[in-house]
Each structure stands twice: as C-alpha cells, then as structure tokens.
C-alpha cells in the first residue's frame, strides 16, 4: 500500500480548536452545568437557578445574581483563553476561584447555540449576546448573568449519540449541582426540569456571616441534611481535625451506614469537589478495622489547605488535583476520620445500632 501523500502543516481554525477542547471539557450536559455553576459562584452569586429541558440536551439555562459581565466584555467572555480570574503565573499558583483557564464558555459555545444575558450594577439595562451571530442588543433582567445553552452537540452528532436517556442526563445534571451545593451553604440553588421544580436548597448562611466559623459549620450541617437527607446526618459523626497546614471538617458515616456503591463519598479541597486517590484511600483506611468486605463508607470531607500546596491545574475539568505533600494530606484525613469514628458519641451510636 502506498503511503498517504504528505499534507502541509496548517494552523487549525479557531472554531475547530474550541471544538477539540470541548471534547475534554464538555462530555455531557452535566459538564456544562458544572462549568456554568462554577462561573456563577466565581461571580459571587447568592442564588443560582438551573433550568433544563430534555435532561439538559435541549436547554441548559443557568441564572445567577452575581457581578454580571459589562456589555463590552460579553464578546470577550466567549473567546478562548480569555479570563478575568488570573493575569500571571503567580496568580495561577495560588488560584482561589473555580475557573482560571478561560476555556469553558468558548468550548460550550462551539458545540451548542449559546446566548449570554448579563447586567452589572452600574448598567441601566442588561445586554444579550447571541454567540453564533455575534449580535448584541439591550434586554431586560436585574443584576447578574444568565447563560443559555441550547441543542448541545447539535454540530457534533458523534458526541450526541453517546448521550443517554433524558432521565439519566438529568440525574447527572442534578448530581453536578448537588456537588456544588454541598460546599456552599451560603448560596441558594434551584433546579427546574421541563418547567417543574425538581430540587431546591435554600441558603442558610448570610454573606455577612460566612467568616464566622461556628455559623459556617452549622450551615454546612444543615446543607448536608438538606441535600443528602436526615438519614445521612443521623448515621454519621462530625469530623474536625487540624494537622499542620491541613484542616479537615465534614461528616463521616458510621460503619453501618456503608453502602454497596461509592455514591456518597464527597471530597472537597478548598471548596472544590475533587476525585482524588490520596483522599479516598486515606478515608477508606480510617475504616480499615471497622468495615469489612467491599462495603463503601459514606462521607463528606472538606480539606482546607494553603492554595500554594495544591496544584489544581492538572486536568482540564479540574476534578483532579495534585498535592505538594500528599503524605501530610493523607495523614490528616485518615486521622480526622479515625478520631471522629472513635469519639464517644460514634461508639455509643454504633453500639445501639448493633
Ligand atoms: P474561566 O471561568 O476559566 O475564567 P470561562 O470561559 O468559564 O473561563 O468564563 C470566561 C469569563 O467570563 C470569566 O473569567 C468571567 O469573567 C466571565 N463570566 C463567565 N460566566 C460568568 C457569570 N456567570 N458571571 C459573571 N462573569 C462571568
Ligand atoms: Mg469558568
């Protein structure tokens, strides 16, 4: 067989670059939901409403009461690698926002029909930008932003074919919001599907009280109960440990609350939901002596660590992180959960359950 003739090297068109990036960032409607809620939180929203049609495939609209985007910056927000969150390498090394790559809006816009509707506190009216046509015109809304994503993957049928039923995609979208909600009791969340309210979690912490650690913990317990159910609270014990530079809080389920699936294991690093082997291994090893077989413990663990000691720029979706000293984090999490399970109240609860 003759080798294919060599073709010249060319720069890819912008649109195609975004579509390639979208493959990494947007796997399904839930990934878009996650990115848009990230943005709303970064904008300081206190109330976030997610509206979906057909499991998010036909429509995802995320509405917030955050800072808004000024009219002249709306087209910039859609550009690849355009961000308001970092300006240099130093910022990247201690990033405190959910986003920083400036990729999500460009990526989602390249595989959907997107519109941005936004108003800042200084503006007399809101503006609406249609991503495809570039048309920008005055519109009505109060301060904040609504991002509308229609017909996800309409231009990439191969990707669209991989989507599951609307019910499954909806469940993934709800899970994406749930992960955010568990970290932010100071923010109210609502999810609508096909015009019906399917989930609502009210804020139980005023913005003014977020610095009060006692009130924060109280609000967090309330949010855990609202999102995961009263059973989760009843069958778990509070976690609180500070070891060196690492603080671990949250709740750990009693051994009897363990499940066959690992579907109630939530780990956060500086407020970001992560999937991390160090954290799951540390948590699992705390149950070593009390949990046998293949049972999966339930827990929600919040790790606070100096942002300089963790690299969040490991994966395009930022769901993975790398710790500078993973042993220190492993020890902190393991001890935090072990101590919680060994506390007198945990022992008493376990005894009554037995
Ligand atoms: P990143 O979040 O990494 O900066 P995005 O593509 O998600 O990249 O967003 C680009 C920019 O658009 C953000 O940096 C921000 O300035 C602006 N933006 C996006 N969504 C919102 C929102 N809901 N409220 C205010 N600004 C937003
Ligand atoms: Mg973002």
From TrEMBL:
<dbReference type="GO" id="GO:0016887">
    <property type="term" value="F:ATP hydrolysis activity"/>
</dbReference>
<protein>
    <recommendedName>
        <fullName>DNA mismatch repair protein MutL</fullName>
    </recommendedName>
</protein>
<comment type="similarity">
    <text>Belongs to the DNA mismatch repair MutL/HexB family.</text>
</comment>
<comment type="function">
    <text>This protein is involved in the repair of mismatches in DNA. It is required for dam-dependent methyl-directed DNA mismatch repair. May act as a 'molecular matchmaker', a protein that promotes the formation of a stable complex between two or more DNA-binding proteins in an ATP-dependent manner without itself being part of a final effector complex.</text>
</comment>
<feature type="domain" description="DNA mismatch repair protein S5">
    <location>
        <begin position="224"/>
        <end position="342"/>
    </location>
</feature>
<keyword id="KW-0234">DNA repair</keyword>
<dbReference type="GO" id="GO:0140664">
    <property type="term" value="F:ATP-dependent DNA damage sensor activity"/>
</dbReference>
<dbReference type="GO" id="GO:0032300">
    <property type="term" value="C:mismatch repair complex"/>
</dbReference>
<keyword id="KW-0227">DNA damage</keyword>
<dbReference type="GO" id="GO:0005524">
    <property type="term" value="F:ATP binding"/>
</dbReference>
<dbReference type="GO" id="GO:0030983">
    <property type="term" value="F:mismatched DNA binding"/>
</dbReference>
<dbReference type="GO" id="GO:0006298">
    <property type="term" value="P:mismatch repair"/>
</dbReference>
